[in-house]
Amino acid sequence: MSGGGFIRLPGGSVVVALSLPRPPHGARAGLYDCGCRVRVLVHAVNRQRALTRLRNLGLRSVYLRGNTEPPTPDEITAVLHHPDGLVWREAPEDDTESWHPIRALLRPPPARPSAENEPAGNERPAA
Origin, by domain of life (predicted)? Predict the structure, then answer.
């Protein structure tokens, strides 16, 4: 279960904050998949749209139950100043770590070419 919360802004939109398990893929996949948690912030028109934005990115089992960990004023400022309105940070209690765009969390690891797919020596790939 994820801890999280939301806050309604004066303009009617909301900022949703969720603490989620780190996805198994991403910028630091492999050795760093230790069950760490990340804090994800989403700015959207309403709570349902915020959760839908996360589900559309592949985080399928995201739910907001209650309002136990609402976003802090610093978190609200961070997400409002980001062009995508969707940021994350691995150590929520560490104020020195900066916020990252969601693309950095969900980026698949770089593909490594296998020896079978590389042309050998003077051979040309088939057309």
Answer: Bacteria
